[in-house]
Design goal:
heterodimer; A: alpha+beta; five-stranded antiparallel beta sheet; 11% strand; B: alpha+beta; two-stranded antiparallel ribbon; 18% strand; Clathrin_sm-chain_CS (chain B); Longin-like_dom_sf (chain B)
Chain lengths: 1131, 193
């Protein structure tokens, strides 16, 4: 009862106000909005408007805050606030009131409240949480309109975290009797799918049910979801193709109620949606495409009416036909359709026609030929958008023959276009074409000059970078290089003599770099003259400090001779007191280097010498300095992850105890010298290989894209087979019959014969023939891909690095061709076929995060046809015991064992592994661990009846140093006897598994020389020896080592002392020396032969063993942790 | 997906702005200004599509617009929408406004921002096209308008009671769906067999 009284009382003021002016409340508030708007329209300046709105907002603020304001008045206030917000004035005070209105108002007021909320707030706004309850309530309401409003606001924005709260309610609505509710629920769920796909995983079946809903509207809504999901994963929905085709058939066939017609076209938007879905499903899938040919044909046929919307359907049809697996008669019809679009006088259709042509031209370049005159007309179209689209089309058909004309057209457009977006895009395209198809040096340099001056400072930074790279790396011919560089120098000198002030900064940077590097090529030019030109750039007001530093670098390279030095001195004097530290440093460099020409020649060797410089990324040359500093009491350096860890520990909130460590192996880093001042200024050049430089621009951050992740949280990440690049080569459309091609040709040859009546016609014809040059003569294959082989002028030199890699690849993989070798030593050859495993090469590609054990499977996969069970065996059972083999070999092994040299008997040795066999010879090997070395013993068994002469055996390895022990290899081998060779092995660079390859050549009495190849693989752990150090020594060593890795290992937890048990396993299997165990921490030391120590710090943490390894040798920690993992796994 | 729907007049004064993706207040205003700048420059006899507004999302995005007397209607969409389809959707929107306001003019949009938004909400929901049939949209809007009139009559009555009444009066949306005709078969769905 008291409730009612209270409500009445609170309602009283509003009732009173209503009563006092019955019916006029609405009017007055409308007029308030009216007067506001009138006020605004009367104003003349932006400033006045601002003042007026602020005043308005102030009064709104007062009113909404007042307790006497009714919901009804609040609604009017909200509308006014919406208006102010639309004009761009923030009214954040009203947000909470909007939510309140949505919460408490009657349906109408609620609607305004929801509207205001959806306009004011966004998904991440904190106030939105207050709305969740309201939405929940309204979703359960019996009033359909309230439910609709709630669904609408949910699909506009809803906090991601709160989705589970309302998800069941929205799902429920999928079964609502009213179709409008079902439809909105479907769209709301789609929105959920977009923002949090994993939360709606379980209702995929319900989506299917929505697709089969009896109401076409609900079905249409569900297509949004399917379009998205099929886009993400076309394979998963192939089974629905039939359904979509059936639906489209019924729609096209007019089976839908008349209601769905739009200008007597049945449900056009639905058709468009379905066609898009079909094109996604049929892409590269002949069998799925087969299902849809018929309905596509019918769609084309039915969409004959001349209305905008039928063209929309036609366009989608055409795109679909060209996307799915091609069918010739459909393609023909689609081509005709495109023709209609292109030739249409309606500008919108022309635009779409050009778009379609651009899309299609990759498959069917002849189509562009048919419409060449129209395309020429479009080039001169007053509408820039049409022009732009035409250029896009031309870009796709560019080849070596028409490149000059097309680039000229593009530059023409660039000169009139003011739009940044267009400029960036087109400039990139021009640069790409120029680099690919340039007919000669002059043209190339001049075109690039235009590109730089137009593109200016908005263009992509990789354009100047790749241009400079092109110049510096050169091409196949030295003479060509010289000419191109000389031409560039000439052209830049004349530019600088003109008005350099007008050139963009980027261009000036390019100019100064080129002059610095290559102006010596111009013999009649004194370096002092160039220096003076460059110095002029420094004095210009608008030169940025980045440009100035490029100029300084160029000057440093150039200063020689007394005249030059005096210019340099003058400049460096001015700038050595510059406020800009970078400039000051450059000035200092210039000053010193100009005085000391010898040093200068050393630091900046002239021309050509572009060898990759090895960078010592571990900064080992600083070790002395560091230890001195440490001795003097400096705090030891802690890498970021250690600092983070300590920080996290301090806060006791470490949810992720070991975040990703930085596993990039740095040993292969190299930097091309003298690339650019920005790069040189990078602190001691952390960097990838030189290919990265082109993308670098001015950034000095470590670029990790494209760097393979080898070590992840889970441990060693297995390698994925590199995707065959050849798969990406475009395949020409197979349906093009020779007939069609002929047609295309003849139509082309006919066009010019049409006698032009007007002069301008003639001009166009000429333009056409130059634009479409090469299109008719070449095979479509060449046109399609940009992969034209022959006419590409500026072909980059193959990187020496790559070639060497290739050579080594071929060298290593050759043994794998020998069949018996495959059987004998499967594991080895699978390693050879995958050189990627070695750390330095690992840095090139990303791998998926897989567990350790996958390495094994990767090996198997990459492996050999004759799959051998031996491969699946655990190869890490015992470090001293690598590949164990077939039982049938065993008896032989036993007898071979007797041939083991006496001095090696009694030492730990691996089982004897067969290497290779043929009818006369069989080779086996094992390795023996001596305290200070590892000995490889090769047994050569002559199993034939005849003696073997002139036996020569060679053993070599990329990763190891191999030296022969004892007497020289056997010359002669008697029948059925065994000879033994010994090799001492030392590790050159740590790898997970190292390998030796070898070859034996021999002569049988009757036959001529024969050869046999073999390889033998050893785990790195065979080279590990305990390192006896005390805890104190360990402490000092720890600080001195720079390469480290962190990883969590599994702890052997079934023992009483898990840490000790785990470390014992490691000690036994890997021969590590346990220095000390203190509580939950343990320190372990070992060394890799010869004298490469590695320290390990273990700590029990959250049920795992957190391991931190340090070593002065790069890659050693990574490799060692791999073996630790294996050892523990197999325990 | 539709990213934004903007209506402004020949002088660039916004009349309606609805963003389906979150931008900051400043960016929104900048988008409106830039869009107006781009669109107003264009002649009458050029195409209705514009590409590559930098602000709203780069090359994947398109502005599709129509110009009616004093107003520009601009839809900003991504590549998943059909250009001509959206162009006709604008037409449907304008025709619907015309029906709802009886000869719609700029003033209607100014004074009934909320109603225009409600009409729009029946067409486009969260960036997705919900309904393209003008009659259907009008039916929905009318249902709400009727309720508004009814509410004016029972002003002051407790909201819950009002909504109960409303529920009774809610018109059946006459859709005339002939289910027999469009038997959508979904043959290969094991889960529904």
């Amino acid at each position: 009862m008291s409730d009612v009284v209270e409500k009445t009382l609170t309602a009283l003021p509003s009732l009173l106000s209503l009563d006092s002016q019955p019916g006029s409340a609405k009017l007055s508030s409308t007029s308030k909005l009216g007067s506001l708007i009138r006020g605004i329209t009367e104003l003349t300046s932006k400033h006045e408007e601002e003042k007026l709105i602020q005043r308005e907002l102030l009064s709104i603020k007062e009113q909404v805050a007042s307790p006497n304001t009714t919901m009804r008045q609040m609604k009017e206030l909200m509308v006014r606030t919406i208006y102010c917000e639309m004009l761009g004035y923030e009214a954040s005070f009203s947000y909470i009131h909007a939510i309140k209105l949505a919460q408490q108002g009657s349906v109408l007021e609620k609607r305004v409240g929801y509207l205001a909320v959806s306009l004011f707030l966004n998904e991440s706004h904190e106030l939105l949480l207050l709305l969740v309850n309201t939405v929940l309530k309204d979703l359960q309401s019996t009033n359909l309109i309230e439910v609709c409003m709630a669904l609408t606001v949910v699909s506009q924005m809803f906090p991601k975290d709160m989705i589970p709260a309302i998800l069941p309610l929205v799902e429920e609505k999928l079964n609502h009797p009213k179709e409008i509710i079902r439809r909105k629920a479907v769209l709301a769920l789609y929105k959920f799918y977009l923002i949090a796909p994993n939360q709606v995983q379980h209702i995929h079946n319900k989506f299917r049910k929505a697709l089969c809903d009896k109401d076409p509207g609900v079905m249409t809504a569900s297509l949004h979801i399917y379009l998205q999901m099929i886009q993400e994963n076309p394979e998963g929905y192939k089974d629905l193709t039939g359904s979509f085709v059936t639906i489209l058939k019924q729609v096209v066939g007019g089976k839908l109620p008349m209601d769905f017609n739009y200008h007597s076209v049945p449900a056009p938007w639905l058709q468009i949606q379905l066609l898009r879905i079909l094109s996604l499903l049929g892409k590269n899938d002949p069998s799925t495409s087969e299902i849809m040919y018929e309905v596509l044909d019918e769609s084309l046929r039915r969409a004959g009416m001349n209305h905008n919307i039928t063209y929309a359907i036609l366009y989608e049809c055409v795109k679909c036909i060209y996307t799915i697996h091609p069918k010739s008669d459909l393609l023909e019809k689609a081509a005709k359709c495109i023709g209609n679009f292109v030739l249409s006088p309606k500008i919108n259709l022309k635009y779409l026609g050009l778009k379609a042509l651009t899309y299609v031209v990759q498959q069917d370049p002849k189509l562009a030929l048919q419409h060449q005159m129209t395309i020429i007309e479009c080039l001169d179209h007053p509408d820039l958008i049409i022009k732009r689209e035409t250029l896009e089309l031309l870009f796709r058909i560019t080849n070596a023959q028409n490149v000059t004309v097309i680039v000229e057209k593009m530059l023409e457009f660039l000169r009139i276009s003011k739009d940044d977006h267009n400029t960036i895009d087109l400039v990139g395209k021009v640069a790409e074409l120029a680099e690919k198809y340039a007919p000669d040096n002059e043209w190339f340099i001049e075109t690039m000059n235009t590109v730089f001056s137009i593109g200016g400072d908005v263009m992509q930074p990789d354009i100047p970078n790749s241009f400079l790279k092109l110049l510096s790396e050169g091409f196949d011919s030295v003479e060509e290089d010289r000419k191109l560089r000389l031409f560039a120098v000439n052209s830049y000198i004349s530019l600088l003599q003109g008005e350099p002030g007008k050139l963009p900064q980027r261009f000036l940077q390019v100019i100064s770099w080129v002059l610095g590097e290559y102006s010596y090529l111009k013999e009649d030019l004194e370096s002092a003259a160039v220096l003076r030109l460059l110095a002029k750039l420094l004095d210009m007001k608008n030169s940025s400090s980045e440009t100035k530093s490029w100029v300084f670098m160029a000057m440093t390279k150039l200063c020689e001779g007394t005249a030059g030095v005096s210019v340099a001195q003058e400049v460096s004097e001015t700038y050595s007191s510059s406020m800009d530290t970078v400039l000051r440093q450059r000035a200092q460099e210039l000053e010193h280097l100009s005085q000391d020409s010898e040093l200068c020649a050393k630091v900046l060797p002239r021309g050509g010498d572009r060898e990759h410089v090895e960078v010592d990324s571990s900064l080992s040359f600083l070790d002395g300095f560091v230890s001195e500093a440490l001795a003097a009491g400096a705090a030891p350096y802690k890498p970021p992850h250690q600092r983070q860890e300590e920080l996290a520990q301090a806060k006791v909130l470490s949810l992720e105890p070991y975040s990703l460590s930085l596993p990039i192996s740095m040993s292969s880093c190299s930097i091309t010298d003298r690339q650019s001042p920005t790069l040189l200024s990078m602190s001691s050049g952390l960097s990838g290989d030189s290919t990265d430089l082109s993308h670098k621009g001015g950034s000095t951050t470590l670029k990790l894209d494209g760097v393979k992740r080898v070590w992840g949280r889970e441990g060693y990440l297995s390698q994925k087979e590199p995707v065959e690049e050849s798969a990406q080569v475009e395949v020409p459309s197979p349906v093009r019959s020779p007939n069609q091609q002929e047609e295309g040709d003849s139509s082309h040859s006919q066009t010019p014969t049409v006698t032009p009546t007007l002069g301008c016609e003639q001009e166009k014809q000429q333009l056409a023939s130059s634009l479409f040059l090469g299109l008719s003569t070449q095979s479509p294959v060449c046109l399609m891909g940009k992969s034209e082989p022959a006419p590409q002028r500026f072909r980059r030199k193959a990187k020496s690095l790559n070639t060497s890699e290739q050579i080594s690849n071929s060298l290593i993989s050759s043994p794998s061709a020998v069949d018996n070798l495959l059987c004998n030593n499967l594991l080895d050859s699978s390693i050879t076929s995958e050189p990627d495993l070695s750390p330095p090469e690992r840095t090139t590609e990303l791998t998926t995060a897989n567990g350790t054990c996958n390495t094994e499977t990767a090996l198997t996969d990459s492996g050999m046809k004759g799959s051998n069970p031996a491969l699946n065996r655990d190869n890490s059972v015992d470090a001293t015991d690598p590949p164990s083999h077939e039982d049938m070999d065993r008896p032989k092994n036993v007898c071979l064992m007797s041939h083991l040299p006496a001095e090696l008997c009694g030492l730990a040795h691996s089982e004897i592994t067969p290497l290779c066999t043929n009818q006369s010879l069989s080779l086996s090997a094992c390795h023996v661990q001596k305290e200070d070395s590892l000995v490889l013993v090769v047994f050569i068994n002559n199993c034939s009846d005849s003696d073997i002469q002139q036996t020569r055996i060679q053993v070599d390895s990329e990763d190891l140093e191999v030296s022969c022990v004892g007497d020289s290899p056997v010359e002669e081998l008697r029948s059925l006897s065994v000879a033994v060779c010994q090799y001492s092995l030392t590790v050159k660079r740590p790898l997970v598994n190292v390998e030796v390859v070898g070859m034996i050549s021999y002569q049988l009495p009757v036959v001529t020389t024969q050869e046999l190849q073999f390889s033998y693989k050893l785990p790195l752990s065979s080279f590990i020896r305990p390192l006896m150090v005390s805890t104190e020594e360990y402490g000092t060593m720890w600080l001195a080592f720079s390469n480290d890795t962190k990883q969590n290992l599994t702890l052997i937890s079934d023992e009483q002392e898990p840490l000790a048990a785990t470390l014992n396993v490691l000690r036994k299997k890997l021969q590590l020396h346990i220095v000390e165990i203190i509580g939950m921490e343990g320190i372990v030391a070992c060394s890799l032969l010869q004298d490469q120590p590695c320290l390990m710090h273990c700590r029990v943490h959250a049920g795992t063993l957190a391991v931190w390894l340090r070593s002065p040798t790069p890659d050693l920690p990574d490799c060692l942790i791999y073996h630790c993992q294996r050892a523990l796994q197999c325990h | 997906m539709i990213k934004a729907i903007l209506i402004f007049n020949n002088h660039g004064k916004p009349r309606l702005s609805k963003f389906y993706e979150h931008y900051t207040e400043d960016t929104e205003q900048q988008i409106i200004r830039e869009t107006f700048h781009l669109v107003s420059k264009r002649d009458e006899n050029v195409c209705n599509f514009l590409e590559g507004g930098m602000l709203i999302g780069g090359s994947d995005y398109k502005l599709i617009y129509r110009h009616y007397a004093t107003l520009y209607f601009v839809f900003c969409v991504d590549s998943s929408e059909s250009e001509l389809g959206i162009l006709d959707l604008i037409q449907v929107f304008v025709e619907t406004l015309d029906k709802c306001f009886e000869n719609v003019c700029e003033l209607d949009l100014i004074f009934h921002v909320d109603k225009v938004h409600n009409i729009l909400a029946e067409m486009v929901m969260g960036g997705m096209v919900l309904e393209t049939n003008m009659n259907e949209i009008i039916t929905q809007v009318d249902a709400q308008n009727k309720m508004e009139k009814a509410e004016a009559g029972i002003a002051g009555a407790p909201a819950r009671a009002v909504s109960a009444v409303k529920n009774m009066n809610l018109p059946e949306m006459p859709r005339n769906i002939n289910i027999g005709d469009i038997s959508i078969k979904v043959p290969n769905l094991p889960s529904f067999k």
